[in-house]
């Protein structure tokens, strides 16, 4: 299984070697724009109003690790949606792969393996830019990368399973409109979830992104953990494991049975 999965990762790398120019600019530019607009621009207003005074740190510093985790989520969602739909329906490359000794399990594990590679690169760039903005140190920025990658995988696996069930691509638009965007806004990225209405706050604790944001923020800034890190890591791993099993099951139903 490992050999077959590595072959799938290799395919992803070979394709990316020819298409990297289309994404590498946004990989570097998006963190800069986000941190300039939200961290520096909006952050100046927040700091003047004492918005993060209780944490004794500038808003840019508070925001950057949260955006790191949110960027991992968005990247993973993008890699687990349209490329999967293309492999199943548009280009049918998955059917071609399954005509070789590669199995459905190889396909799914390899796909998630390639997403791991992409997440490591994207979050590594974001951590570097976060450091250049003075939001964290190099060491603490590096410590936050594995937890950002884990956060991305906690979304990539179930979204792969979700995409494998879709007959039409309109479901992907609904995923981002009613799933990814609200999570981006209300999972502690821009403000502590304690500021949410009491009826909504418990829901935020159940969202993987909240745990990813909390882990990245604590490791990148040396802040006390909002939730025990063992619990947050275990919770994210459960999402990865269940999502992977569901993805294998749905992919087998779609392509084999």
TL;DR of this structure?
It is built from 11 helices and no strands.
Largest sheet: none
Shape: globular
Query: Which class best fits the helix and strand makeup?
Result: mainly alpha
Supply Rg: 19 Å
In total, the number of strands is: 0
* Uncertain regions spanning at least 5 consecutive residues: none
Proportion of residues in extended strands: under 5%
| SSE sequence, one letter per element | HHHHHHHHHHH
Question: What features would you highlight for this structure?
Answer:
11 helices; mainly alpha; 0% strand; 257 residues
What does this molecule look like?
The protein is mostly helical and 257 residues long. The chain has helices spanning 2-19, 21-48, 59-80, 82-90, 93-98, 104-132, 138-165, 170-186, 201-205, 208-221, 229-255. α2 (21-48) crosses α6 (104-132), α3 crosses α10 (208-221) and α6 (104-132) packs across α11 (229-255). The radius of gyration is 19 Å and the shape is globular. It starts with a helix and ends with a helix.
Task: Give the arrangement of secondary structure elements.
Blueprint: H1 2-19, H2 21-48, H3 59-80, H4 82-90, H5 93-98, H6 104-132, H7 138-165, H8 170-186, H9 201-205, H10 208-221, H11 229-255
Helix pairs in contact: 1-6, 2-3, 2-6, 3-6, 3-7, 3-10, 6-7, 6-11, 7-10, 7-11, 10-11
């Amino acid at each position: 299984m490992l050999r077959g999965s590595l072959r799938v990762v290799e395919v992803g790398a070979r394709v990316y070697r020819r298409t990297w120019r289309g994404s590498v600019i946004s990989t570097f530019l998006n963190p800069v724009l986000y941190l300039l607009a939200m961290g520096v621009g909006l952050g100046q207003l927040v700091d003047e109003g004492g918005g993060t005074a209780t944490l004794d740190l500038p808003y840019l510093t508070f925001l950057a690790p949260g955006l790191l985790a949110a960027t991992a989520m968005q990247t993973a969602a993008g890699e687990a949606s349209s490329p999967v739909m293309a492999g199943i329906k548009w280009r049918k490359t998955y059917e071609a792969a399954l005509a070789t000794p590669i199995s459905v399990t190889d396909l799914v594990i390899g796909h998630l393996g390639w997403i791991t590679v992409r997440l490591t690169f994207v979050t590594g760039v974001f951590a570097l830019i976060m450091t250049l903005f003075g939001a964290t140190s190099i060491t603490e920025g590096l410590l936050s990368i594995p937890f950002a990658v884990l956060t991305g995988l906690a979304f990539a696996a179930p979204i792969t399973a979700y995409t494998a069930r879709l007959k039409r691509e309109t479901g992907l638009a609904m995923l981002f409109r009613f799933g990814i965007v609200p999570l981006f806004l209300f999972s502690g990225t821009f403000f502590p979830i304690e500021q949410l209405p009491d009826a909504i706050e418990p829901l935020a604790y159940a969202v993987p992104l909240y745990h990813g944001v909390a882990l990245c923020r604590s490791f990148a800034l040396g802040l006390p953990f909002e939730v025990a890190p063992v619990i947050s890591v275990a919770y994210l791993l459960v999402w990865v494991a269940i999502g992977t099993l569901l993805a294998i099951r749905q992919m087998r139903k779609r392509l084999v049975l």
